[in-house]
Write a structure and sequence with these properties.
Strand content: 25-35%
CATH superfamily of the largest domain: Medium-chain alcohol dehydrogenases, catalytic domain
Bound molecules: NADP nicotinamide-adenine-dinucleotide phosphate
CATH architecture of the largest domain: Alpha-Beta Complex
InterPro entries: ADH-like_N, ER, GroES-like_sf, NAD(P)-bd_dom_sf, YIM1/Zinc_Alcohol_DH_Fams
Structural class: alpha/beta
CATH topology of the largest domain: Quinone Oxidoreductase, Chain A, domain 1
Order of helices and strands: EEEHHEEEEHHEHEHEEHEHEHEHE
Pfam families: ADH_N, ADH_zinc_N_2
Number of strands: 15
Protein name: NAD(P)-dependent alcohol dehydrogenase
Organism: Nocardioides bigeumensis
C-alpha cells in the first residue's frame, strides 16, 4: 500500500510517500481501508519529537512506528481474532496508532466506533482525536447550561469542537482566536469573540467566567486564573509555547498543586482514546450538536503540505488527507 513514512524527527522533510507492506490486524483489531485521515497537533508533536520528555517512549532516533497520523475513517476489510461488533463492510472511524496517512490502517476496537451517519468520510475523519479531547474537556470543566465559558483557542482542531459542544449544552461561550478566524467563530454561532492579537483575553477587566478551557497561548496560570469566578474551573488542554522539554506539563502540575489550596478548580487534561466517546460523538453529530469544521482536503501525496499548513497556524478547524 501507499503510505507516508517518517524518517527521524524534524519538519515535513522527514515525510515521504512510499510503498510499504499492508499492516495486519492482531487480537482485538480490524483492518480499515482508509477513506479519509486527518492530522492534528499530536501528529505534529510526534513529527518533531517534542516535548523531548516523550522521546524515550517514542524512540530516541525516530518514531518506532514510522507511519504518521492517527485520525481515520473508512471501511472494515479484515477482522483479527477476538473482535465482536465489527464486520467487513462496516463504516467506522477512530484512532489508529499504526498510522492513518496510508491506504490501510489497523485499529483496535478500543479506539473504534461506527461512524456518524450524517457526516461524510472526510468529516468523520476530522472528529476522533480532537473530538474526544473536546468532549473530555467539557466534562472536566463540568460545563452546563447558563454558565459563562471562555474557550482560549476556539478556532483550532480541538477548539471548534469545544465551542460547539459547550454551546449545545446551553453555555454562553466567549471564543478567543486571531483576526483571520473571527468569521469562522462567528459562523459557528460563538456569542462573543476576543481577538488575541488585539487584546489579551486575560485583560478583560471585570469579566469573570465559570469555566475557562485553555487550548492556546500557554499564558501564566496567575493571568488565566484572573478570568475565573471565585469557585470557577480552569481546564488546561494545550498550548504549543510550553517549551521544548516539558511542553507545558509544568503548568499542568502547578495547577494541580494550586488546586489543593484554592476554591477554584484547576486541572490539566490528558485526553484518553475511548470507543465509548467515539460512540457518543457519533450520536451527538447525528443529533446536530456539532459539525466538524474541515478547512481543506489534501491528497496523500500532499500530506506534508497539509502538515505545513497546520504548523504555520493557517488551519481553520481541521485538515483532512485522502489516499
Ligand atoms: N491535553 C490533551 O490531551 C490534548 C489533546 C489534543 C491536543 N492537545 C493540545 O492542544 C493544543 C491545541 O491543539 P489543536 O489541535 O486545537 O491545535 P490547532 O488546530 O493548531 O489550534 C490551536 C488554537 O490555539 C489558538 N492560539 C494560538 N496561539 C494563541 C494565543 N497566543 N492565544 C490564544 N489562542 C492561541 C489558535 O488560534 P488561531 O488559529 O486563530 O491563531 C487555535 O485556535 C496543542 O498544544 C495540542 O498539543 C492536548
Amino acid at each position: 500500500m501507499r503510505a507516508v513514512v517518517q524518517q527521524g524527527y524534524g519538519g515535513t522533510e522527514t515525510w515521504s510517500v512510499h510503498d510499504v507492506p499492508d499492516p495486519s490486524p492482531g487480537n482485538g483489531e480490524v483492518l480499515v481501508e482508509v477513506r479519509a485521515a486527518a492530522i492534528d497537533r499530536g501528529t505534529w508533536h510526534l513529527m518533531i519529537g517534542e516535548p523531548l520528555l516523550m522521546r524515550p517512549f517514542l524512540g530516541l532516533r525516530g518514531l518506532r512506528q514510522p507511519v504518521p497520523g492517527r485520525d481515520v475513517a473508512g471501511v472494515v476489510v479484515g477482522v483479527g481474532p477476538g473482535v465482536a461488533g465489527f464486520a467487513p463492510g462496516d463504516e467506522v472511524y477512530g484512532s489508529a496508532p499504526s498510522g492513518s496517512l496510508a491506504e490501510r490502517a489497523v485499529v483496535s476496537v478500543k479506539r473504534l466506533a461506527h461512524r456518524p451517519q450524517t457526516l461524510t468520510f472526510e468529516q468523520s475523519a476530522a472528529v476522533p482525536i480532537s473530538g474526544m479531547t473536546a468532549i473530555q474537556a467539557v466534562r472536566a470543566g463540568g460545563v452546563r447550561a447558563g454558565q459563562r465559558v471562555m474557550v482560549i483557542g476556539a478556532s483550532g482542531g480541538v477548539g471548534t469542537y469545544l465551542a460547539q459542544l459547550a454551546m449545545s449544552l446551553g453555555a454562553e461561550v466567549t471564543g478567543v482566536c486571531s483576526t483571520s478566524k473571527i468569521d469562522l467563530l462567528s459562523d459557528l454561532g460563538v456569542q462573543r469573540i476576543v481577538d488575541y492579537t488585539r487584546q489579551d483575553p486575560t485583560d478583560l477587566v471585570g469579566e469573570r467566567f465559570d469555566v475557562v478551557l485553555d487550548i492556546g497561548g500557554n499564558r501564566p496560570l496567575r493571568d488565566v486564573r484572573r478570568l475565573l469566578t471565585p469557585a470557577g474551573t480552569l481546564v488546561l488542554i494545550g498550548g504549543d509555547e510550553g517549551g521544548r522539554v516539558l511542553g507545558g506539563l509544568d503548568r499542568q502540575l502547578r495547577a494541580a498543586a494550586l488546586s489543593l489550596v484554592s476554591r477554584q478548580k484547576l486541572r490539566g487534561l490528558v485526553a484518553a482514546e475511548k470507543a465509548a466517546d467515539l460512540e457518543e460523538l457519533a450520536r451527538l453529530a447525528d443529533q446536530g450538536a456539532y459539525r466538524p469544521v474541515v478547512d481543506r482536503v489534501f491528497p496523500l501525496a500532499d500530506a506534508a503540505k497539509a502538515m505545513d499548513h497546520l504548523a504555520e497556524g493557517h488551519a481553520r478547524g481541521k485538515l483532512v488527507v485522502v489516499p
